[in-house]
Amino acid sequence: MNWESIISFIKPELFILIIFLYCLGLFLKKIPIFRAEWLIPIIILGVSLFITIIYMAVVTVGEFTGEVLVTGIIQSVIIAASAVFANEIINQITYKRHFDR
After folding, report:
1. With contact defined as beta carbons under 8 Å apart, do 56 and 72 qualify?
2. How far apart are CA 39 and CA 19, in angstroms?
3. Is 37 helix (H, G, I), strand (E, B) or coil?
4. Nearest 10 degrees: CA dihedral of 60, 8, 70, 48?
5. What is the model's pTM?
6. pLDDT at 101
7. pLDDT per position as a tens digit, 63-99
8. Where are the transmembrane segments (predicted)?
């Protein structure tokens, strides 16, 4: 399976969710009272699941079916993984690179 087939599986209107989840992760990281940074990917996945499944059920299909649930889960996992992966790439390129010198 190549990258294009994975990207084509996500509905185009849900790509904005990747940016939203990335910003949500940054926001959670900046909150001083929130110290459990290991929870951020789990929270991002939960929010992605909720928004994607609700969007699929309400906007795309119009009802909640098994197909909506399975498709929503798969799309939300790919979306959440993309947001976390983007954060890790940015961290590796910017912050962690200073330790290589």
Report:
1. yes
2. 18
3. helix
4. -80
5. 0.83
6. 59
7. 888 988 999 999 999 999 999 998 888 888 887 666 6
8. 6-27, 39-62, 68-90
Percentage above 70 pLDDT, the chain? 89
Spatial contact of 11 and 17, defined as CB atoms under 8 Å apart: no
Residues whose CB falls within 8 Å of the CB of residue 26, separated by 6 or more in sequence, listed in order: 87
At a CB cut-off of 8 Å and minimum separation 6, what does 37 contact? 28, 29
Q: What is the mean predicted confidence (pLDDT) over 41-52? A: 96
Q: Which amino acid does the sequence have at 69? A: L
Alpha-carbon distance values, 51 to 24, 40, 85 (Å): 13, 16, 19
Environment class of 48 (CB within 10 Å of its CB; exposed 0-12, middle 13-18, buried 19+)? buried
Match 């926001």 to its residue by tokens: 27
Predicted local distance difference test score (pLDDT) of residue 77: 94
